[in-house]
Amino acid sequence: MSDNYEMMYILRPDLSDEQVTEAISKYQEFLSDKGETNITVQHRGKKRLAYPIKKYLDGIYIQMNWQGHGQANSALARAMRLSEEVIRYLTLKLDKPVVSSEETAQTVATQTTEETVEA
After folding, report:
1. Distance in angstroms (rounded) separating the CA atoms of residues 83 and 111
2. pLDDT tens, 60-111?
């Protein structure tokens, strides 16, 4: 049985858009090469950090969600720890799969339509 994972990582704020895209695709491909499935990535944008990290006051937030057996987690953490572009990361094992905002909107629209038809 596959488990659900979520990782939030912060990239250096001085990276160009092209470098950010390369970093995102690098870690996404890393997971898919390790056999992880249902990989979704959300680029959260540049935000102010709560406290300075490696002398940076801002960071580029990226959220990744995937399903897998967890063998890739330690290898991914090691790759991020050695990376110059990642300044912080955190991986969580989730109880339930994450529902994207598009799926939530579709579910709400379907429920609203069903309620209207019943009335």
Report:
1. 45
2. 999 999 999 888 899 999 999 999 999 999 999 998 777 665 554 454 444 4
Query: What gap in Å lies between CA 88 and CA 10, rounded to an integer?
Result: 5
- Which run of H or E residues covers position 25? helix 17-33
CATH of the domain at 84: 3.30.70.60
Both structure tokens of 79: 């790759």
Range of the domain at 60: 3-118
Tell me whether residue 3 is exposed, middle or buried, using C-beta atoms within 10 angstroms of its C-beta: 0 to 12, 13 to 18, 19 or more: middle
- How many angstroms separate the CA atoms of 55 and 40, rounded? 30
**φ, ψ dihedrals at 97, nearest 5°:** -65, 150
DSSP assignment letter at 17? H
> How many residues belong to the chain?
119
